[in-house]
Amino acid sequence: MGKLDGRVVLITGAARGQGEQEARLFVAEGAKVVLTDVLDDQGEALAKELGEGSAVYVRLDVRQEADWIAAVAAAKRAFGKIDGLVNNAGILRFNELVNTPLEEFQQVVQVNQVGAFLGIRTVAPEIEAAGGGTIVNTASYTALTGMAFVGAYAATKHAVLGLTRVAAVELAAKKIRVNAVCPGAVDTPMTNPAALDPAADPVESGAAVDELYRKLVPMGRIGRPQEVAALALFLTGDDSSYITGQPFVVDGGWLAGVSLF
Ligand SMILES: NC(=O)c1ccc[n+]([C@@H]2O[C@H](COP(=O)([O-])OP(=O)(O)OC[C@H]3O[C@@H](n4cnc5c(N)ncnc54)[C@H](O)[C@@H]3O)[C@@H](O)[C@H]2O)c1
Questions:
Q1: What is the pTM of this model?
Q2: Is 213 a catalytic residue?
């Protein structure tokens, strides 16, 4: 018996990183998964690997309302219903607030914040029609505290928590639970873009990442995307049946405080 037997979950940004690991774990736990992303080749290859009966890939740019409507229709054609959503797609831009171009700020808002809003608004009625289910929003450590040079990102992740709380209150009577994961630093292309650069030395860039997080994080290491997927599984499955409207931090102790040595 899997923890998600009989469930159909749509995951955004599922072609790589945390979304990919969520898709892999959810399928291993019996779910049917609708993988969505703008990285079509990677998304399609992952769906193929996971198997036709378990996964389907649909292109979904989370900023586009029409894409959401088409993805829901495709999901229902493939698996008959949707009773879970993981709003995972996101982008990060580094800039001092006073030097952040308006266009860049709005770009981050469109993906991280508008994308999560459109996801909740489009998919919640489908989950209700399926008899209830779950929404997991991907916030961040920076939804709960500040961090220099990620002003646009932190603002959108704080907003995702606001959306999570309001959605939880409004959707509880419809048997939809809504929670948020708040990862600290996790080893994906977002935190280590050098991993995607064929010209970069993977050993060197990996060592730089290890050294940074050895000092910053009490547990002394960066997180693995599988560790965020495990939390998303908990919040999507029945083990969290009485939990809604909450942020869950998965950060190796980073938010707990600073260490002196
Ligand atoms: N990696 C971290 O340290 C970390 C920490 C906290 C929160 N997060 C959040 O976790 C989520 C996943 O990030 P990740 O670390 O796996 O990074 P990632 O860059 O590997 O994955 C993000 C995915 O989102 C997709 N995406 C980007 N723009 C999109 C759009 N407009 N429409 C649809 N898909 C789009 C990308 O193609 C990619 O597949 C993000 O919301 C991110 O903000 C990551």
A1: 0.97
A2: no
